[in-house]
Amino acid sequence: MLSHAVTWQWPTRQLLQITDCHVLAEPDAVYRDVKPYRHLERLLAQMRPTALPLMLTGDLSEDHSVASYQHLRELLADWPAPVYLLPGNHDDLALMQQVLVGAPFVFAGEIDAGSWRFLLLDTRSDTPAGAFDAPRQQLLTQQLARAHQAQQQVWLFCHHHPKPVGGIIDQFMQLDSEAFCALLDAAPQVKGLSHGHCHHGYVRQQAHWQLVGCPASSIQYLPRDEWLSVDVGPQACWYQFADSGAVTLRFITALAATPA
Ligand SMILES: [Fe+2]
Fold first, then answer.
1. pTM of the entire structure?
2. Is residue 141 part of a domain?
């Protein structure tokens, strides 16, 4: 469980969410018709001139190999802003923490960002599906209460989607999400939740909060009843969190690779 609290260390409250990188032990290995390492490399190269804090929301590795996390470390070792991480169903959290150690990498459950508090949730279970059991619900209840006390607005990040997105990936969504969503519905300070896992981008209003699916940096799934994917290039989601509570977000697609 991620519970450690840190303070936001960046002059602006902007960040880039990158998810479902699915990096393999071999940099040129293929996952569903793309080379995930090369996609991530291209995305980061294009984002580097305006480098922002990164929020990596899981399935960073496809094969949870040491080498895949080492590749991630090499790609991000000199990233000029903090890199926050949380695990997905393909990840080995202990291995992540062992390999992705020291700056710029930050493992935390909460980020105190002035008028905002960001919560990073571990929604893994023993299967590829997500879960959020009673101990995690208790911790979240305490975190929301603290944010309320401090008059902070809250945005949550996790890997699994808590509501169906209308595709075959729904069999692996957070399967016990009723109590989880009830907590968010009862907390007016919650402005939104962003997840990965579904591999395609969408924004939906859910009670008083926004539900955001971040598109993958690897391959995009089509929301169908079979595993259909399409390569539209590496994608991510850019956010800006204003003191007023307004959140601006935009899906980003890296430009096509220049032919050699
Ligand atoms: Fe996933």
1. 0.96
2. yes
For residue 226, give Cα distances in angstroms to 83, 201, 233. Answer: 33, 18, 21
For residue 44, the CA-to-ligand 1 centroid distance in Å is 21
DSSP assignment letter at 259: P
Per-residue pLDDT of the chain (260 residues; tens, 9 = 90+): 687 999 999 999 999 999 999 999 999 999 988 999 999 999 999 999 999 999 999 999 999 999 999 999 999 999 999 999 999 999 999 999 999 999 999 999 999 999 999 999 999 999 999 999 999 999 999 999 999 999 999 999 999 999 999 989 999 999 999 999 999 999 999 999 999 999 999 999 999 999 999 999 999 988 777 888 888 899 999 999 999 999 999 999 998 776 55
15 is a domain residue: yes
Does the residue 260 lie in any domain? no
Could you tell me the residue range of the domain that residue 30 belongs to?
5-253
CATH number of the domain to which 161 belongs: 3.60.21.10
Identify residues whose C-beta is under 5 A from ligand 1, the ion.
59, 88-89, 197
3-state secondary structure 167-233: CHHHHHCECCHHHHHHHHHCCCCEEEEEECCCCCCEEEEECCEEEEECCCCCCEECCCCCCCEECCC
Ligand 1 centroid–CA 150 distance in Å is 33
- The CA 122 to ligand 1 mean position distance, Å, reads 12
